[in-house]
Amino acid sequence: MAGHVFHPGHAELHGITVVLETNGAKTYVGRYDSEDAAGVHLLDVGIHDLSTAAGSKDDYIRKSAKFGIRAEHKHVVVPAAEVARITRLAEVPV
Amino acid sequence: MPYNPALVAPMRAEMTRMGARELTTAVEVDAAIGDQKGTMLVFVNSVCGCAAGNARPALSLALKHPVRPNEVVTVFAGQDLEAVVRARQYFGEYQPSSPSMALLRDGEVVHFVHRHQIEGRSPQVIAADLTAAFDRFCGAEV
Fold first, then answer.
1. B50 — contact with chain A (CB < 8 Å)?
2. Fewer CB near the terminus (10 Å): N or C of chain B?
3. Nearest CA of chain A to the CA of B114: how many Å?
4. What CA dihedral angle connects B128, B10, B52 and B102, to 10 degrees?
5. What ipTM, to 2 d.p.?
6. Is the model's pLDDT at B9 over the cut of 90?
7. Residue B48 catalytic?
């Protein structure tokens, strides 16, 4: 994905729907907005929490790719130190 | 709050020029989709310049394909609020996003293009996915 800026003047992933995996129990699926000192800002976000969810993280990501995101939060900030990996949802096979 | 109608007028016109029928009320949506037979593509339009700015040309390209849906209709997210809410009720478990496209056959969603499948992709690539779906679901032998 390097080199393509979807919204000129913004970060490479600005406006792109991503899967943000953390070092903890939570995985976020939402639209990447920006990153600052507070962390990564996501919009229209669904969250999978391993500690409470019935299904697996992989199933959650796959269902989000196929059926879309059940957005439960308008805006979430994930501290940069918690971010393990960010990938485009569109890259998830459905 | 809906955007200024003057701002979105060109985005509406782009859809009607390619033959899409605008649905602006829940009544119009029910009349079009409620007892839908054959194939229909529902385009959820959006003001997002980058995603919808690629999705509309993509659909225009795809509609030049010899196999295509019987009808194309469009609702405008953030504009025709009631119509969009009602249209999404026909999309089953597919979550709302805009822009997006639902291909229906006899009232059932058989193919869905989410916003995340539009972001950052060229109209040609999106159109190729659409025409593959048209071939699969809109041909005579389905």
1. yes
2. N
3. 7
4. -70
5. 0.86
6. yes
7. yes
